[in-house]
C-alpha cells in the first residue's frame, strides 16, 4: 500500500472496525504463507533436514568447549590441581571447536549448493509455467513484474533455503543445551537468565506483528513510486519544460520523495524503542551484569557456591548472541515468505487448457496417454473429432455464442456470433469499452472463452497446439513488445529461417525499411543501443514481424495508431495487397481508415449490434452512423486547427 502523510486510519477489507488487522484474515494469510513455503520448498526439504541435523550437532559442539573450560577452571581452583587433566580438557575443547567449525562449514556449503541448484530448477519451472499461462496474463503485468517473479522472488528464497532452517536450529539448540546444563548447576540462577530471553521474545513478537508487515509493504510501494516518478521526471524533462510544466513535474517527484520519507518514518519509529530494548537485554554486558548481581545475592544468601557462578558467566553470556542472529534474519525470513507466497500463487495460475481434438497436439498425446489410452485409441479419438467437424474453407474464423468476462461477476462479451471469411478484411468498431480489444485477444487465445467456441477452418482453437496456433494467427496490438537485440533478431522471431530478402520485403510492406537502413548498422542495429525507435516506428516493426510470419489469419488492434498519416496510408495499402487468401480482423477507432474494408462489425456493450459495409451502415442510421458523425467532427476540428496554424 502507499502511505500518505498523516492519513486517517481507515479500516479496510482486511481490518476490523478499529482499523486493526482482522485476526481471521491474518490467520488465513499466515496459513497460506505456511502452505506456500511447504510446497515451494518440498523439493529440498529432505536435504535441508539432513543439513539441520548437522547444524544441531555443530551447535552442541559450540557449547561443549565452554563446559570443558568450566571443568578446567574447577580443577584449577581445587585444592589439589591435576594439570594433566586440565590440559586434556583444553585439548578436547580445541578438538571439539575444530569439529564444530568443519560441521558448520559443511552444512552451510551444502545448503548453498542446494540453493544454487534449486534456484536454477525453480527458474526453469517458472519459465516453463509462463509458456503455458494465457498471454493475457502478460498483458496485465509489466516486464518489471515478470522479472520480479523470475529473479527477485527466487533470489529472496535464498535465505529461506540456505539459512532460515539452519539458523533456527542453531539459535534454538545452543540456548537449549546451555539452559539444560545451567539448570543442573543451579536452577534458581537459570530462571534469572530466562528473564532477558522472555523480554526479547516479547519484543520480537511486537516487531513482527501484522501492522509491521503492512508498514513494510507501504514502504516498498512508496519506494516503487519514487522510482517511477524519477524515471518519468527525467524522461519527460524536455517536454515539461517546453510547455512550462516543469514546476508540476518537479512537484510530483518531490511529493514521491516526501511520501517515501514519511513511509520510512512510519516504518522505523514504532520499532526503534522495541528494537533497542530487545538488543540490550540479550547483550553480553547486560547478561553479565544480571548474572553477577543475582550470583552475589545468591552467594550472600547462602544458596549458591561462588564457584557455581562461573558457568553462568562463561556459558550464559552466549545465549544472547545466538538469539540476535535469529532476530536479524527475521526481516529476510518475512521477505522470503512473501516471495514464496507469490511464487506459489504463480504456480497455481490457471493454464490454457489443451484441447482433445488434435492428434498432433499435446492435448491428445499427453491427456489420453496419461489416462492409460494407447496410441491407437488416441488416434481414433482424434479421428472421431475430425470426422465430426464440418467441412469449412481453411482460414474461416467463426465465433459461436462466445461469452467472456475477466471476472465471474462481469461479462465483457455476451453471445457473440460472427464469421470472418478468408481473403477479406473485417473491421471491428464500437464505443470505448464495448469489448473490441477483448474480442480480438480471444482469437489468438490470450484468454479462453467462458462459453461458446472460436474455430478456424472448423477446428476449435483450443484443439490447436500452441506452436500451430501462432503459425495460424498473427497479431499486432497497440502495446508493442520488442526484445532486447537487433532489428534482425526482432524480425526473425516470426520466422527464424527467413533470409535477408524476406526481411526486406516485410519491412518495405510495413514502411519501415528506409528507417532501418538509415540506422548505423542497418538491420543489425541493436534496439536501445544504436537504434531508438519512436512509438510509430516500433509499431511498424511489429507489423513487419507479423507480415513475415505469413499467417493465414491476422489480427490488428489499432495497428496504425502511432503512425504518421503518410505511413498509415502506406501500411493500409500494403495490408490490402497482402491479405489475399488471408482472414484479417482490424480493430479501429478512426473510422475513416476502414471505409474500404469488406465488412464492418459494430459492437455495443459486448454484443454485436450491427454489421455490413460502410455505405450500408451509414444508411441504417444506427450506432455506426453516430460514431461516424463523431469521427467526422473530430477530423473537421483537426483540419481547422491545422489551417489556423498554417495562416499564422
Automatic annotation (TrEMBL):
SUPFAM superfamilies: ABC transporter transmembrane region, P-loop containing nucleoside triphosphate hydrolases. The keyword GTP-binding does not apply. It comes from Nocardia uniformis. Residues 50-335 form the ABC transmembrane type-1 domain. Residues 353-364 have a biased composition (Low complexity). The chain crosses the membrane at residues 40-69, 89-114, 187-203, 281-304. This is ABC transporter ATP-binding protein. Keywords: ATP-binding, Cell inner membrane, Cell membrane, Membrane, Nucleotide-binding, Translocase, Transmembrane, Transmembrane helix, Transport. InterPro entries: AAA+_ATPase, ABC1_TM_dom, ABC1_TM_sf, ABC_transporter-like_ATP-bd, ABC_transporter-like_CS, P-loop_NTPase, Type_1_exporter. One of its GO terms (molecular function) is ATP binding. It comes from the Bacteria. Residues 1-24, 352-372 are annotated as: Disordered. It is found in: Cell inner membrane. The lineage of its organism: Bacteria, Bacillati, Actinomycetota, Actinomycetes, Mycobacteriales. The keyword Cell membrane applies. Residues 397-630 form the ABC transporter domain. It is a multi-pass membrane protein. GO terms for cellular component: plasma membrane. Belongs to the ABC transporter superfamily. Siderophore-Fe(3+) uptake transporter (SIUT) (TC 3.A.1.21) family.
Amino acid at each position: 500500500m502507499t502511505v500518505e502523510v498523516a492519513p486517517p486510519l481507515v479500516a479496510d477489507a482486511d481490518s476490523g472496525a478499529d482499523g486493526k488487522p482482522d485476526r481471521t484474515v491474518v490467520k488465513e494469510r499466515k496459513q497460506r504463507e505456511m502452505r506456500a513455503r511447504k510446497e515451494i520448498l518440498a523439493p529440498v526439504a529432505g536435504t535441508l533436514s539432513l543439513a539441520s541435523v548437522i547444524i544441531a550437532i555443530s551447535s552442541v559442539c559450540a557449547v561443549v568447549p565452554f563446559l570443558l573450560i568450566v571443568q578446567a577452571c574447577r580443577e584449577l581452583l581445587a585444592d589439589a590441581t591435576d594439570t594433566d587433566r586440565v590440559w586434556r580438557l583444553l585439548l578436547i575443547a580445541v578438538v571439539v571447536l575444530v569439529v564444530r567449525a568443519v560441521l558448520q562449514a559443511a552444512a552451510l556449503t551444502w545448503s548453498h549448493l542446494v540453493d544454487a541448484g534449486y534456484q536454477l530448477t525453480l527458474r526453469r519451472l517458472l519459465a516453463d509455467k509462463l509458456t503455458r499461462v494465457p498471454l493475457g496474463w502478460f498483458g496485465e503485468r509489466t516486464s518489471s513484474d515478470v522479472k520480479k517473479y523470475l529473479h527477485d522472488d527466487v533470489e529472496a528464497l535464498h535465505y529461506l533455503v540456505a539459512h532460515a532452517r539452519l539458523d533456527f536450529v542453531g539459535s534454538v539448540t545452543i540456548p537449549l543445551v546451555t539452559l539444560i546444563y545451567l539448570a543442573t548447576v543451579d536452577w534458581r540462577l537459570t530462571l534469572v537468565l530466562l528473564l532477558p530471553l522472555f523480554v526479547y521474545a516479547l519484543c520480537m513478537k511486537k516487531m513482527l506483528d501484522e501492522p509491521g508487515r503492512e508498514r513494510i509493504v507501504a514502504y516498498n510501494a512508496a519506494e516503487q513510486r519514487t522510482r517511477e516518478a524519477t524515471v518519468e521526471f527525467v524522461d519527460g524533462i524536455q517536454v515539461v519544460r517546453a510547455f512550462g510544466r516543469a514546476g508540476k513535474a518537479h512537484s510530483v517527484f518531490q511529493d514521491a520523495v516526501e511520501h517515501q520519507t514519511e513511509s520510512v518514518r512510519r516504518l522505523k519509529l514504532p520499532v526503534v524503542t522495541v528494537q533497542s530494548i530487545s538488543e540490550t537485554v540479550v547483550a553480553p554486558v547486560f547478561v553479565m551484569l544480571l548474572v553477577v548481581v543475582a550470583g552475589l545475592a545468591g552467594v550472600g544468601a547462602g544458596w549458591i557456591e561462588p564457584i557455581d557462578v562461573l558457568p553462568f558467566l562463561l556459558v550464559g553470556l552466549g545465549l544472547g548472541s545466538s538469539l540476535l542472529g535469529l532476530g536479524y534474519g527475521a526481516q529476510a525470513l518475512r521477505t522470503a515468505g512473501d516471495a514464496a507466497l507469490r511464487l506459489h500463487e504463480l504456480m497455481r495460475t490457471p493454464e490454457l487448457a489443451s484441447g482433445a481434438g488434435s492428434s498432433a497436439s499435446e492435448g491428445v498425446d499427453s491427456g489420453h496417454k496419461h489416462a492409460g489410452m494407447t496410441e491407437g485409441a488416441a488416434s481414433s479419438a482424434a479421428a472421431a473429432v475430425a470426422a465430426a467437424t464440418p467441412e469449412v474453407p481453411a482460414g474461416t474464423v467463426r465465433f459461436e455464442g462466445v461469452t467472456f468476462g475477466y471476472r465471474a461477476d462481469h461479462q465483457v462479451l455476451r453471445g457473440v456470433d460472427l464469421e470472418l471469411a478468408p481473403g477479406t478484411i473485417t473491421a471491428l468498431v464500437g464505443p470505448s469499452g464495448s469489448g473490441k480489444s477483448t474480442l480480438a485477444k480471444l482469437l489468438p487465445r490470450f484468454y479462453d472463452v467462458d462459453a461458446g467456441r472460436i474455430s478456424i477452418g472448423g477446428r476449435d482453437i483450443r484443439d490447436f497446439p500452441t506452436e500451430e496456433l501462432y503459425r495460424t494467427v498473427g497479431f499486432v496490438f497497440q502495446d508493442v513488445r520488442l526484445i532486447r537485440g537487433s532489428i534482425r533478431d526482432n524480425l526473425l522471431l516470426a520466422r527464424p529461417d527467413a533470409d535477408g530478402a524476406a526481411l526486406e520485403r516485410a519491412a518495405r510492406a510495413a514502411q519501415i525499411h528506409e528507417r532501418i537502413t538509415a540506422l548505423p548498422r542497418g538491420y543489425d542495429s541493436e534496439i536501445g543501443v544504436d537504434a531508438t525507435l519512436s512509438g510509430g516506428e516500433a509499431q511498424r516493426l511489429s507489423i513487419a514481424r507479423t507480415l513475415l510470419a505469413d499467417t493465414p489469419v491476422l489480427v490488428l488492434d489499432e495497428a496504425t495508431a502511432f503512425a504518421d498519416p503518410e505511413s498509415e496510408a502506406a501500411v493500409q495499402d500494403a495490408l490490402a495487397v497482402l491479405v489475399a487468401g488471408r482472414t484479417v480482423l482490424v480493430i479501429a477507432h478512426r473510422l475513416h481508415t476502414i471505409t474500404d474494408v469488406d465488412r464492418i462489425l459494430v459492437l455495443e456493450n459486448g454484443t454485436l449490434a450491427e454489421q455490413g459495409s460502410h455505405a450500408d451502415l451509414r444508411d441504417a442510421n444506427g450506432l455506426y452512423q453516430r460514431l461516424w458523425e463523431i469521427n467526422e467532427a473530430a477530423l473537421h476540428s483537426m483540419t481547422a486547427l491545422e489551417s489556423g496554424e498554417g495562416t499564422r
